[in-house]
């Protein structure tokens, strides 16, 4: 079911393998594909990659990210002659909170004057450990272009990040070590193209989600999961939504009405809409609701589609949906009421595939 259209799948032929054996066979096949392919198999031959100078003012950096539709961007350090970090939507959230916690009214001077590098250092101090000690800056997480796709996917999953910079194994005359960014969506798109060639060999692809241990589920479904399924109402404070996104280290939360039916999904990257025309400077986060924040998002980018599926959808259908550029999760809903039953993210998919 997606935007009022219902897709039904014919039940698969009975399999002679038990579910545990099906999963084992499927994982073995997936590992074989990913182990024998490198990042060059998923990186496009030609693409645009934005990189920001670490000395760029924070305000200008966030405006560029908004205008270019970027949720994160690599940072170039001229002194070190390399990429040293990433600027993300999470940084924007933390910066806004720091400014609005100040006693004085929110002003633009801190965003106008402070370079990204200064903000990164200040963040380590401001958001330090429980004893007040500053957090030590960790080396930039990256992969090499010679790494196989299993190692790349595991690097993203284990570090709970959405993408990872790819460094060239051998330097070239350009002096730029960065090749591109690797994402789980890019790896999944490549994987789906391979599976389509041999889909009949993996019976698990035609199993329904209800029979597969994957995703995050509502307790009422009777299914267990490692994470707690979070949902919020349209009237919930935006700050509560941001708290959950940062604390749970998830990228999105389903937004529901009073009956628990899906209305939209608020993603961490949606916060970038507040960078347009300096909206963030004219609001107070404590007084903004999720509905207000979504209205700003709609004004900037228009209404968007919620990607959904049913518990009776097959694993193959979900994989193909998540391989679409820009889709990072599907919300599992009850067919007639659109009640939120679960959510399946790209991270869930690869944690299951490589488990």
UniProtKB/TrEMBL annotation:
The UniProt record lists the CBS domain at: 45-106, 225-282
Q: Which domain of life is it from?
A: Eukaryota
Q: Which Pfam families match?
A: CBS (PF00571)
Record-linked PANTHER family: AMP-ACTIVATED PROTEIN KINASE, GAMMA REGULATORY SUBUNIT, SUCROSE NONFERMENTING 4-LIKE PROTEIN ISOFORM X1
Full protein name: CBS domain-containing protein
Q: Which of UniProt's keywords are assigned here?
A: CBS domain, Repeat
Span-the-membrane segments of this chain are: none
Repeat as UniProt keyword = yes
């Amino acid at each position: 079911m997606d935007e009022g259209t219902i897709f039904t799948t014919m039940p698969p032929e009975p399999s002679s393998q038990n579910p545990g054996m099906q999963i084992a066979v499927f994982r073995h096949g997936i590992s074989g594909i990913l182990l024998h392919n490198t990042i060059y198999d998923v990186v496009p031959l030609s693409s645009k990659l934005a990189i920001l100078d670490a000395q760029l003012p924070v305000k200008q950096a966030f405006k560029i990210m908004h205008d270019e539709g970027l949720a994160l961007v690599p940072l170039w350090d001229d002194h070190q002659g390399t990429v040293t970090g990433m600027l993300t939507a999470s940084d924007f959230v933390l910066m806004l909170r720091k400014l609005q916690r100040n006693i004085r009214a929110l002003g633009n001077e801190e965003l106008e004057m402070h370079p990204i590098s200064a903000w990164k250092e200040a963040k380590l101090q401001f958001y330090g450990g429980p004893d007040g000690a500053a957090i030590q800056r960790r080396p930039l997480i990256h992969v090499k272009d010679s790494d196989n796709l299993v190692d790349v996917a595991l690097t993203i999953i284990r570090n709970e990040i959405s993408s990872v910079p790819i460094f060239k194994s051998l330097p070239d005359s350009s002096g730029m070590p960065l090749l591109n960014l690797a994402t789980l969506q890019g790896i999944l798109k490549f994987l789906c193209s391979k599976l389509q060639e041999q889909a009949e060999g993996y019976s698990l692809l035609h199993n329904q989600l209800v029979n597969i241990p994957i995703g995050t589920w509502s307790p009422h479904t009777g299914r267990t999961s490692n994470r707690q399924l979070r949902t919020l109402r349209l009237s919930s404070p935006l700050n509560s939504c941001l708290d959950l996104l940062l604390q749970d280290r998830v990228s999105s939360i389903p937004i529901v009405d009073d009956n628990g039916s899906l209305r939209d999904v608020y993603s961490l990257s949606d916060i970038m809409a507040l960078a347009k025309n300096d909206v963030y400077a004219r609001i107070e986060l404590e007084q903004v609701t999720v509905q207000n924040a979504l209205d700003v998002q709609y004004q900037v980018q228009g209404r968007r589609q919620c990607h959904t599926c049913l518990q009776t959808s097959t694993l193959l259908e979900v994989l193909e949906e998540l391989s679409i550029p820009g889709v990072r999760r599907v919300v599992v809903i009850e067919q007639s009421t659109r009640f939120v039953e679960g959510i399946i993210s790209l991270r869930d998919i690869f944690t299951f595939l490589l488990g």
